[in-house]
Amino acid sequence: MRLSWASLLSTVSWRFALGLAVLCGGSILNASSAHAANALNAVLSDDQPKKDPASDEMLVEADELINNKDTNTLVARGAAQVYRQGHTVLADTITFYRETKRVVAVGNVKLIEPNGQVIYANDADITQNFQKGFINAMKSDNPVDRTHFAAQRAERQDGNLTEYTKGVYTACEPCKDDPSKPPLWQVKSAKVIHNKTERTVYYHDARLELWGFPVGYFPFFTAPDPTVRRRSGWLHPVYGYKTALGAFISAPYYLNLAPDYDATITPMITSRQGLHMKTEWRQRFETGEYAVRASGIYQLDPEAMRYPGNREWRGAVSTSGLFNINQNWQWGWNGTTLSDRRYLRDYRLGPDTELTSEVFLRGMGEHSYFDARLMKFTGLSGADVDRYFPLVHPVVDYSTVFSLPKLIGGQFSFDTNFTSVTRNGLDYAARTTSTGAYNFIYGMPGNSTRLSTQLGWKQNFIDPLGQVWMPFASLRSDLVRYEVDSNAAYDAVLPYPLRNEPAVTLRGMPAFGMEYRYPFISASDIGTQIIEPIVQAVVRPNERRIGSLPNEDSQSFIFDDSNLFDTNKFSGYDRMEGGTRVNAGVQYSLLMNNGMNIGAMIGESFHVMGRNSYGTQDLLRVGFDSGLQSHTSDYVSRLSFQPNETLKFSARMRFDKETFAMQRGAFDVSGNFGPLTANLGYLNVAPQELLGNYTYDQALFAHLRYKLTDQWSVYGGAYHNLESNKRISEYMGITYQDECTTASVEYKGTRVRNIVDVPTHDIMFRVNLRTLGETKVSQSVGQKAAPPL
C-alpha cells in the first residue's frame, strides 16, 4: 500500500487545522469540516493506478543527462523532469542513485501528484517508488479546496510515520499586493506526526494566529486523520450568557458506537441553574432512520425562571422517524413531551410558539396524493392554555385527477377529507362589535368528526375568435357528527343548536358554472401588451347549517385578487360557499423590450341569488367585514412594476365599493442600488367593526444591507407597529466575509403583547474559519422576569 507525498501533506494540513479548531471553539464534525474531511478523503486514497509494464518504467527528460559509472548515478540537468506511475518531479537538477534507489531533486523542486496536487520545495530526497524520504522547505497548494500548507521539513519513516517540522496551514489566499504579508489566519505547529496505522495525527506546540499575532496556544493534542469518517470525541463547544441561566458552556461528546447507530451526550454547565444534560440516539436502517432525544435539569434557582418554568425539575423527551415502505409510500412520526411549555425556549432546544406531535402515512402517485396524520398541538407561549389545543385523531386527505375519455373530455378530480377532533375546553373570546356583544368560538369542548368528499370536472374550449370557455361542475358532500361537552358555563356561551344531544348531519353542495376569458394581444416595436377580461359564474344552492356546526379549519379568511376566481373562497372544509355568484375582473400585462414590465388586475364579486355565505353569522363571523358580505363586493386589485433589474414594486389592495377607501393594502418595494440592498414593506388594515376591531392596523417592516467594502457589510431591519408606535422586532449587525473567513456580530430584539412573555434581547458573535469550523457566543441582555400568572 502506497501513501503519496501529497496525501501525507494533506493529512497534516487538514487535521492540523481541524484539531486546533476543537480547542479554539471550532468544530471537527460540523458541516464545513465534514465537507473538508470528505474532500481530503479523495486526496488521501492510497490506491495508485493499476500497474502495467509501461507505466512502471521511470521516464526522464532534461536538457542534459550525465551517466556517472564511477558513482553509479544518473544526473539530469536543466528543466529536468521525471515521470513514474502518474507522479511527476521537476527541478533544476535531479540525481538518481542506482544502489540506494533514491531520487534527489535540487532547485525549484516541483512535485505533481496523480490527483493534481502540487508540492513546491527547495530540495527533496525520496525513494524511486515515492514511499520514503524527506522534503525541505516545502509548500503545498490544494486546488480542490484552495488550502495551503508549508513545512520546514517533511520526513517519511518506516512506511508508516510521517513527521513534519514547523508546519503552517491556512485556507486564506496570499495578499496580492504583498505575498509576504501574513494571511488573516493561519495555524502553526512545531511538530506534526501522522501515524497511518493508528489513523491519528499528533500535534506539538500548536498555535492559532490572526494577522500574524498568536491568539491561542496548545502544547499537545491529537485528532483522527481524514480517512476516519466517524470517531468518538468532543465536538465544538458553545458559549453564552442568558439572564436566567447565567454564563454557560456546552460541549457535546460524540459516540461512534456502530456503522448504523451513534449517540451524542451534551452536558451544559450554567452558573445559575447548575448542570443541564442532553442526549441523542440515532439509528439508520435500509428503509429509514429514527432518533430519540432526552434532556433535563434540576434547577438550582427556579425563581429566576418565568412561569411556568419556575420549578426544580424540568426536561423533555422527543423522538422522530421516517421510513420508506416503497418508492411511493412513507410513514413516520415526531413527538415531544415536556415538563412545561417554556422549557424548550429557556434552554434553546426548539421552537418558541407551538409544538406539533404527529404520526403520519403519506403516498404520492403520478396524479394522486394521500396523507393521514394523528396530531397533538402544544402551545409554548406563557399565555397558552393546554386544554384549548385540539387533539386530531386523525386527519386524512386524498386527491386525484385524471383525464376523461374523448366522448366526455376534460379533467376529472376527486378529493376527500376526514377530520376528527377532540378538545377538553371551550376556547372563545368575548368581543363587543358594532352590532353588540358577541362570543367568538375558536374551539368547542367535546368531539367533532367530519367526512367530506368532492367530485369535480372542468374542460377548456377555445373558439375560432380566441375566446376561452371553461365549463365546470362539482358535487360536495359532508357527513358531520359532533358531541359537545355540556355544563352551565359552556351553555351560557354556546349557541342553542350546539347544546343539544349528539347530532349527525348530512349536507351537500352541487355547483356548476362557466368561466370566460378573452385575451387581447398587441405586439409592437416597444414590447407586448395583453389585456384579458375574465368573467366567472357559479350556480349553487344555499349553504346549510351555518353557525350550528363546528368550524376548525376555516377560521382565517382574507379576500384579495388571489382568490377572486376560486369557486370556494373559504380556506378549509368546515365552511362551503353557497348561493349564485358572478366574479369578474380584467388583468393587464406589459412586457417591454428594454426589460421593463408592468402587471395589473382589478376585479369584483357579485352575489346574485340565494344566501350570502360571507354575510351569514357563524361561530367566528368568518366573512364579516371581508368585503364579500354584501351583494356587491369591494374591489380587489394587484399591481406590479419593475422598471429594471434592480427595482421592483408590488401592491395588493382592497377598496370600498362605494367610497373607494382602502380597506386592506400590502405594499412591497425591493431594490439593489450598487452597494445598497433594500426591502421595504407596509401593511394597512382598516377597522373591522363587525369583528370587534375598531382601530387601524398599520405596520412597517424594512431590511437594509449596505456593502462597505468587498468584505465588510452592515445590515439591519425592523417590524414596527405604527398604531401603537412600538417596534415588534428589530435586528442589526455587521459582517465580514472573504474566501477563508466569515465573522459577524448581530443584535436581535423581540417584543410580545402579553404579560407572561417578556421582551428578549440577544447579542450573538459568530466566527467561521473555512475548513476549521464555526464558533458562536451569544448573550442575553437587559431582560427582566415577568410576574407569574
Quick rundown:
With 789 residues, this protein is mainly beta.
Average pLDDT for all residues:
86
| Structure summary, number of beta strands | 45
Cα(first) to Cα(last) distance is: 71 Å
Radius of gyration: 35 Å
Number of helices: 4
Q: Sheet with the most strands?
A: 27 strands, mixed, barrel
Beta-strand proportion? over 45%
Task: Report the uncertain regions.
Answer: 1-54, 784-789
The rough form would be described as elongated
- The computed structural class is mainly beta
Description:
The chain is 5% helix and 56% strand. The longest helix has 19 residues, at 5-23. It is mainly beta. The chain is elongated. It has a 27-stranded mixed β-barrel. Strands 1, 2, 3, 4, 5, 6, 7, 8, 9, 10, 11 and 12 form a twelve-stranded antiparallel β-sheet that branches. The protein has four helices and 45 strands.
What are the SSEs and their pairings?
Layout: H1 5-23, H2 31-44, E1 59-61, E2 64-68, E3 73-84, E4 87-97, E5 102-112, E6 118-127, E7 133-142, E8 147-157, E9 161-170, E10 185-195, E11 200-210, E12 213-224, E13 233-234, E14 238-242, E15 246-250, E16 253-258, E17 261-270, E18 274-284, E19 288-298, E20 313-324, E21 329-338, H3 343-346, E22 354-364, E23 368-379, E24 391-403, E25 411-423, E26 427-433, E27 436-443, E28 446-458, E29 461-462, E30 468-484, H4 488-491, E31 503-517, E32 520-523, E33 527-539, E34 580-592, E35 597-609, E36 635-642, E37 647-655, E38 662-673, E39 676-685, E40 697-707, E41 712-721, E42 726-737, E43 741-750, E44 760-769, E45 773-780
Parallel strand pairs: 14-45
Antiparallel strand pairs: 1-3, 2-3, 3-4, 4-5, 5-6, 6-7, 7-8, 8-9, 9-10, 10-11, 11-12, 13-16, 14-15, 15-17, 16-17, 17-18, 18-19, 19-20, 20-21, 21-22, 22-23, 23-24, 24-25, 25-28, 26-27, 28-30, 29-30, 30-31, 31-33, 32-33, 33-34, 34-35, 35-36, 36-37, 37-38, 38-39, 39-40, 40-41, 41-42, 42-43, ...
